[in-house]
Amino acid sequence: MKSKSDEELMELIVQNHRPALEELYDRYVKLIYSFSIKITKGDTEKTKEIVQQVFLRLWTTRSTYNPSHGQFASWLLTITRNISIDLIRKEQKYKGAVQLELAEWNQMKAPQSEGVQQQVTKNILKQQIQEAKRHLSEPQQRLINLLYWEGYSLSEIAELEQKPLGTIKSRLHEALKKLRNNLNGKLGGVGHGE
Question: Can you state the percent helix, strand and coil of the chain, rounding each to 5?
Answer without folding.
Answer: 80, 0, 20
